[in-house]
């Protein structure tokens, strides 16, 4: 039961990605600029996150110095993701775009878990994990058809 909240939040996050992608694609199409659309998306997200931090969390800013240098570039990956899927969704379709991103995420996740990359606990690659990724990759091919 204690795992219900993380599962629910993760499912909602997945739905948000499915809505965010065409929203950003439409913003890019409407403005004629992928980069303006991505900037607007991040400005809105930044404003929301800062407001929640200021009202709910209030962790002192000084604590951010404790993070390792590589932890500071997480936003770069998010910015690339937003721009890449906003570009790709109108060209590939939403289902294929998101299926490809999920396949890439799971493949990387299994490798990162196995080697404990970026501070993760090590989780050995097992046959069921490999099969799970293989089925996702097969899903990419099925969605593509």
TrEMBL record:
<dbReference type="Pfam" id="PF04657">
    <property type="entry name" value="DMT_YdcZ"/>
</dbReference>
<feature type="transmembrane region" description="Helical">
    <location>
        <begin position="124"/>
        <end position="143"/>
    </location>
</feature>
<feature type="transmembrane region" description="Helical">
    <location>
        <begin position="68"/>
        <end position="87"/>
    </location>
</feature>
<feature type="transmembrane region" description="Helical">
    <location>
        <begin position="34"/>
        <end position="56"/>
    </location>
</feature>
<keyword id="KW-1133">Transmembrane helix</keyword>
<keyword id="KW-0472">Membrane</keyword>
<feature type="transmembrane region" description="Helical">
    <location>
        <begin position="93"/>
        <end position="112"/>
    </location>
</feature>
<dbReference type="GO" id="GO:0005886">
    <property type="term" value="C:plasma membrane"/>
</dbReference>
<keyword id="KW-0812">Transmembrane</keyword>
<dbReference type="InterPro" id="IPR006750">
    <property type="entry name" value="YdcZ"/>
</dbReference>
<protein>
    <recommendedName>
        <fullName>DMT family transporter</fullName>
    </recommendedName>
</protein>
């Amino acid at each position: 039961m204690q795992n219900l909240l993380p599962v629910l939040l993760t499912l909602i996050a997945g739905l948000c990605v499915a809505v965010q992608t065409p929203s950003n694609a439409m913003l890019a199409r409407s403005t004629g600029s992928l980069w303006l659309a991505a900037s607007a998306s991040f400005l809105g997200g930044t404003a929301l996150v800062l407001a929640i931090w200021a009202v709910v969390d209030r962790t002192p800013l000084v604590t951010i110095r404790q993070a390792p240098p590589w932890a500071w570039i997480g936003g770069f990956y998010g910015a690339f993701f937003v721009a890449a899927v906003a570009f790709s969704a109108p060209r590939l379709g939403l289902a294929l775009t998101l299926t490809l991103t999920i396949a890439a995420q799971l493949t990387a996740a299994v490798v990162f878990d196995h080697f404990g990359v970026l501070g993760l606990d090590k989780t050995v690659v097992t046959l069921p994990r490999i099969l799970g990724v293989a089925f996702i990759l097969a899903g990419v091919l099925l969605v593509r058809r």
